[in-house]
Every structure is written in structure tokens, then in C-alpha cells.
Design goal:
The chain is built from 18 helices and 18 strands. The chain is α+β, with helices and mostly antiparallel strands and 729 residues long. Helix 11 packs antiparallel against helix 17.
């Protein structure tokens, strides 16, 4: 979630360089600078800001709503693994924070803020529409879906990142210079609209995805389509206010000037490294041949702060995993809160909600209390504390992941498989596998096995010899077993003797907290089953097994079993979150179907509420880190350089997401171990940042500017005095 800097002064966005005293100029064409917008209810607030605030609400609803379901879209719709889904999610997030630089350059150097917002919003809308169309299952094969989705995401990243630095600055332009108080309050309303859009969308779009069914599955087309409609509305509202806006002309991009100044200094220093010329106090002084001392001095101040930014991406690497790793963790948890079953991707709404709660608590309660205790809680210490809180949040996530894994299937390695025995005969059966020391005790009839047994194979697959002993009979069967697979040996009575089938089981929990169920038909006639109102399953006779079907939780008494002799109710009972079941149809008696249900994979027994502490910690960390960091960086830079620091701040978010992308793809590991890795890395970075902050000397840019003016005045006075003396002589 985006957070404004604290303090009375409004933030200077990236495409806002230096606010000037604008006047009417007929030569500017599309930029009527002093056009006065009608006021809201006779106040000093221009009516035009209402259009900007509504635009921002709709745009943020659009962005956060789409992003909330993105990881599960990759996982469930494309069937990508968790690492690839996480990598693409963070690649998209990183791109969203690289592209603001493009939007800033377009606005400051070419089109102006108004036209930049219009053009890039159109790109934004097109991206949303392509993304929504790509989520329609009947439209082409998976390759088509992937191409459409990636093109859509690229255009969305270009649109949302491009307009990000311009909209708030454009809103600030609507106020006359003397109305600073009203402009400051506007920014508070502006950021409230951001958080309101984020809060509502992260709760609503997962409902559209999971609770609404289209094309027989989760409705991702609708979950992406509604944010697309909100972005269309955002564009329409923004254009509707066109006649009311004050539009400022492009004024040149200070970020480019800073880059050119730094580049020239480095080039000039390397060019003169072999010459015997006087050394200069600072490496940026090598730009003095081309750039003014004032610009060089301001760049020096900015580079000091940018140097402090170097460790910051690690915080964002952890923070933005709420939409990827934490959402994936939630899919493996129990989501039943009694009165409401929460979707896994809905947990993300906690962050904007907690931010809205924490900001007044911290500003009005915690920080004044710390000041009363005479503790010097400097901005650097606040940011370091925010890092520690985020690290603790990931430590808790690691502990929860370990508890979750207790109900998951074990990870299989090459030459390893799992097997169990389901005895559907009337008496105990002794099962042995040649050269394998398994199943020492007889398997009782209709006994739910406690766990799978591990098979070590000779290669990628192996033919195994099974022996069954039952009431004095000894029967032998051969089955081929493949590595990294899970099997059930079904033993059943057949024509006065025993027979068996070896069937393949699920290797991992069902996705998105769904339940998986398959049926074994123990009748002597074929059956057709109807479950979950719209799933139809045909199972052949004599202990044939169906494929697994994914069902919603809470399936009670709504199944049907259709046989040659009639139609009977099929009572499945509770199919719990994340569990896998085998349901055996054993008999038809008294007008009802008799079944036996085995739990193959345990249900999710860790409740999703256990994620609340980690959301509390990371949201509190965000308030301390993000708000303080923005306010501190603004306070340490001259007015003309605030846009450069905004660019640096956004790039720290991009670099953090890029780091997660690299870890997810280059170093795959157990999820709990990855959480621990990020925790350790953030604590290490926090120590480095604290040391850097200890040696940082805080400055007041206004004082430095005053000293520079006095120095220049004194220098001019000395020069005038010298000239006067020479004239007298």
C-alpha cells in the first residue's frame, strides 16, 4: 500500500521538479495556467480536485484488485508451480516501480502531466482489457492465454507506473500558491482515496474470483474484468474534468540533469586522472567546468541520502511477498471463521486496513509517548525498527509454515515413492513386497491408514512383486512403480478370492484450500455420480477408481448415485479444507448408498487467523519504515531535488521485488527455509543500515542554501571592494 510522507508540506512527486509562479502565456497552447476552477461549496478547494480524487480511487481499486488475485491466477489457471508464480508476480511488481521514471520524463520533458495521464491511462485500460480476455478459458490454448496475460501485464505496468508520479502532482497544481493549507489537506484526502480503493478491492475481487463460477471454474475473467471497468471509469472521470483543470507546461526533468551532472563528473575525473592537477574536495566537484556550484551542491546533498537508500530494497523484498508467498501460505490453511469463509487472497485486505488504524495510533499515541520518555527516536531508528518488525513477521511466517507442513505430503526425491494399502475385503490381509521391509502387521478391513510407507527404488521405475495372504490363500501380483509418485494398493474380494489394483494418489494438497475426492465403485454395476450440483462422474464396476475431483468445502447431502436399479442419495459428509479423500461405494441397502471414506491427505488444521500477527507486525513496520523514510528523505534534500529522491525511493521497491524474483527462480528451497533466509538477510541489512545511519549527519537544506547565498554575497562584496580599491589607485 502507498503511504504519504508525514508533515504539513505536501510531497513533491517525481514529475514535479520545482514549483514556479505560473502566469498566463498565450504561447503555451494547451496549458492555461491561471484558469481558475470553480470552488467546492464556496471554499478554497477547486472543484477539479473532486475528479482527481475519484480517478485515483478507481485506479487504485483497479490495480490492487487485479494484483490481489494474480498469484493464484498463475497457480490455478496456468498451473505454474509456486516458484514460477512468485517470480512472475514480483517481476510485474518490479516493472510497476521502474516505469514511473518513464512517466516522469514524459511529463516533465515532453507532454506535461495532463496529457501523460491521459495517454498512459489509455494504455492502462488496454492492458486491463487484454488481461481480462486472456482469462477466458475457452479462448484458445494455454499459450494464447499466457501471451495475452503477459502483454496485458506489461501494458498495465507501463500505465500504472507511468501515471503514478503525475496524478498527485497534478492535483497539487490545481491550488493557488497561497492556499498551502488546503493543498496539504488535499493530499491527505488523496492518500485516503488510495487506501480506500486498496482496502475495498483486495476484499471484493477475491470474492468475484472464488464465489462466482464461470466456465465451470473460478471466474478470473470477472475478477480481472471488474478492475478493468473501474479503470475505464477512472479515465472517463478524469477526462470529464478537463475543462476545470489548471494545466502546467513541461518544465524540464531535473532527474535527467542530475544524471548528466553525475555522468560528467565521473567522465571528467577519469579523463584527468593521469594529469597533475589540484585535487578537489569532492568527486562531484569535477563537474564544475560545466555545471553551477548550486546544482553540484544540491546533487551532493541528494547523493548522501541516496547512499542511505542502498540497504532499503531488502525491506520491500519482504513486504511485497504479502501478495505472493503469504497468499500461497494462506491456501494451505483453514479459512473457516464461523460466520464467513475467507478466500486465501482476501487476507491481503488486512494491510490497508491496519495502515489506516496504525497511522493515527502512532502519530497521536506512540510517538508522543516515546518523546515523553525522553527517548531520542530518530528517523533512522524508526526505519530500523520497521525493518526489525518486518523480519519478525517473516520469522512468524516460517513457524506457521513448519506447522502447515505437518499435514502436507512429504517431498519426494528421485528413486523414492510412497505407498499404502486399502483393504476393502472383509478380513485382515497380510501384504508383503519382495525385497522391501514394509507392512509388518496385517492390514485390517476398512482401516484408514495412518500414513504412507516409503519405497526406495532401483531406478526411475521398478517392477515390484506383491504377495497377499488372506485366510490361508496366497496370491501374487506384479506392478510397475515410478519414482516420485504416490500409490494406493486396493485389495478387494473377487469371485471367492482376492484381487488388487494399484492406483495413483495425489502428491500434494489440493490448491486454493479446495477438497479433492475420488470414488471407488465396489458394486457389480456401473454408477453415475453427481456431486457439488454440477460435477458428473462415471465409475465402472468392480472396484474401478475415478479421477480426483476438486470440490468446495462443506459438501453435505447433495450428491446423487444413479445405478441400473435406481437413483439414491449420496451423503459425503464434510470435505474439509485442503484434504484429499477416497470414497468407496460398498453397498446399496434400504434405499440408500453405503459408503466408506478414507482421508488420504490430512485437512488444513492451521487456521488462517494465525496469519494475523504477521500482518500486524509487517503493517506496523511499514508505517515506521515507509512514512518515516519518505519524510526523512524529503527533509534532507533541497526543494528542486525532491523528485530525484522520489525516483530513488520508488526504485528501491523495484529492486526489492527483483531480488525476490531472483531468489524464487535461482535458489528454490523449502518455503519455511526461504522465510528464514529473508528474516536473516533483513536483520543483517538492518545492522548495516543502522551503522550507516549512525555516521550520517543530518542537514537542513534551507540552512545550507542560506549559507551558500551568504558566501556568494560575501564573495561578490569582496570582488566589488577589490575593484573599488583598484579604481582609487
Amino acid at each position: 500500500m502507498e503511504i504519504p510522507p508525514s508533515g504539513d508540506a505536501p510531497p513533491t512527486p517525481l514529475c514535479e521538479t520545482l514549483r514556479r509562479d505560473f502566469r498566463d502565456d498565450p504561447s503555451k497552447g494547451d496549458f492555461p495556467l491561471q484558469k481558475k476552477s470553480p470552488k467546492l461549496c464556496g471554499s478554497n478547494y477547486p472543484l477539479s480536485i473532486a475528479f482527481i480524487v475519484v480517478n485515483e480511487f478507481c485506479e487504485r481499486f483497479s490495480y490492487y484488485g487485479m494484483r490481489a488475485v494474480l498469484t493464484l491466477y498463475f497457480l490455478s489457471f496456468f498451473h505454474w508451480d509456486e516458484n514460477l508464480s512468485t517470480a512472475v508476480y514480483h517481476a510485474f511488481s518490479a516493472l510497476c516501480y521502474f516505469t514511473p521514471v518513464i512517466g516522469a520524463i514524459m511529463a516533465d520533458s515532453w507532454l506535461g502531466k495532463y496529457k501523460t495521464i491521459i495517454y498512459l491511462s489509455i494504455v492502462y485500460v488496454v492492458g486491463h482489457l487484454i488481461k481480462s480476455v486472456g482469462a477466458i478459458p475457452s479462448l484458445g490454448n494455454q499459450a494464447v492465454h499466457v501471451v495475452l496475460s503477459m502483454v496485458g501485464l506489461f501494458l498495465i505496468a507501463l500505465g500504472t507506473g507511468g501515471i503514478k508520479p503525475c496524478v498527485s502532482a497534478f492535483g497539487g497544481d490545481q491550488f493557488e500558491e497561497e492556499h498551502t493549507s488546503e493543498r496539504s489537506k488535499f493530499f491527505s484526502i488523496f492518500y485516503l482515496s488510495i487506501n480506500a480503493g486498496s482496502l475495498i478491492s483486495t476484499f471484493v475481487t477475491p470474492v468475484l474470483r472464488g464465489d462466482v463460477k464461470c466456465f465451470g471454474e473460478d471466474c478470473y475473467a470477472l475478477a480481472f474484468g471488474v478492475p478493468a471497468a473501474l479503470m475505464v471509469l477512472a479515465l472517463v472521470v478524469f477526462i470529464a474534468g478537463s475543462g476545470l483543470y489548471r494545466k502546467t507546461p513541461p518544465q524540464g526533468n531535473v532527474l535527467l540533469e542530475v544524471c548528466k551532472c553525475i555522468g560528467f563528473a565521473i567522465k571528467n575525473r577519469l579523463k584527468n586522472r593521469s594529469r597533475e592537477i589540484p585535487k578537489r574536495d569532492h568527486w562531484l566537484d569535477w563537474a564544475s567546468e560545466k555545471y553551477s556550484k548550486q546544482l553540484i551542491g544540491e546533487v551532493k546533498m541528494v547523493t548522501r541520502v541516496l547512499f542511505l537508500f542502498i540497504p532499503l530494497p531488502m525491506f520491500w523484498a519482504l513486504f511485497d511477498q504479502q501478495g505472493s508467498r503469504w497468499t500461497l501460505q494462506a491456501t494451505k490453511m483453514n479459512a473457516d471463521f464461523g460466520i464467513y469463509v475467507l478466500q486465501p487472497d482476501q487476507m491481503q485486505f488486512l494491510n490497508p486496513l491496519l495502515i489506516l488504524v496504525f497511522i493515527p495510533i502512532f502519530d497521536l499515541g506512540l510517538y508522543p509517548l516515546i518523546n515523553m520518555c525522553k527517548l531520542n527516536f530518530t528517523p533512522i531508528r524508526k526505519m530500523a525498527t520497521g525493518m526489525i518488525l518486518a523480519g519478525l513477521a517473516f520469522g512468524l511466517a516460517a513457524v506457521i509454515e513448519v506447522k502447515i507442513n505437518e499435514t502436507d505430503m512429504p517431498r519426494l526425491v528421485p528413486k523414492e515413492s510412497l505407498i499404502r494399502v486399502l483393504n476393502l475385503a472383509k478380513n485382515p490381509v497380510q501384504v508383503t513386497i519382495q525385497d522391501k521391509d514394509l507392512f509388518q502387521q496385517p492390514v485390517e478391513s476398512f482401516q484408514n491408514p495412518a500414513e504412507y510407507s516409503k519405497l526406495i527404488l532401483n531406478g526411475e521405475q521398478q517392477s515390484l512383486h506383491f504377495t497377499l495372504q488372506h485366510q490361508g490363500l496366497t496370491l501374487a501380483f506384479n506392478y510397475t512403480v515410478k519414482e516420485k509418485s504416490v500409490y494406493s494398493l486396493i485389495v478387494f474380494a473377487a469371485e471367492g478370492s482376492l484381487s488388487s489394483h494399484l492406483i495413483t494418489d495425489l502428491e500434494a494438497k489440493p490448491e486454493n484450500g479446495l477438497a479433492a475426492v475420488r470414488f471407488i465403485n465396489g458394486l457389480s454395476q456401473d454408477v453415475n455420480l453427481t456431486v457439488d450440483s454440477n460435477k458428473f462422474i462415471a465409475v465402472q464396476k468392480n472396484y474401478s477408481a475415478s479421477e480426483y475431483s476438486l470440490l468446495e468445502r462443506d459438501i453435505y447431502n447433495n450428491g446423487k448415485c444413479i445405478t441400473e436399479t435406481g437413483e439414491f442419495p449420496l451423503e459425503l459428509g464434510l470435505l474439509d479444507f485442503g484434504a484429499s479423500y477416497t470414497v468407496v461405494i460398498t453397498n446399496i441397502s434400504g434405499g440408500a448408498v453405503e459408503i466408506w471414506k478414507s482421508e488420504d491427505i490430512k485437512a488444513n488444521n492451521v487456521h488462517m487467523a494465525w496469519q494475523l500477527p504477521q500482518y500486524l507486525l509487517i503493517s506496523a513496520g511499514e508505517v515506521m519504515f515507509s512514512i518515516t523514510g519518505l519524510a526523512f528523505s524529503y527533509s534532507q534534500s533541497p526543494a528542486s531535488m525532491k523528485s530525484v529522491l522520489q525516483a530513488g525511493w520508488l526504485l528501491t521497491v523495484a529492486v526489492g521485488n527483483t531480488f525476490v524474483l531472483i531468489v524464487a527462480e535461482a535458489a528454490p528451497m523449502a518455503q519455511w527455509a526461504e522465510f528464514v533466509l529473508f528474516t536473516v538477510l533483513l536483520f543483517a541489512v538492518c545492522i548495516i543500515f543502522s551503522i550507516m545511519g549512525y555516521f550520517y549527519v543530518s542537514v537542513d537544506p534551507e540552512d545550507l542554501e542560506e549559507k551558500e547565498e551568504k558566501r556568494e554575497t560575501s564573495s561578490r562584496g569582496n570582488m566589488i571592494g577589490l575593484v573599488t580599491q583598484k579604481t582609487k589607485l
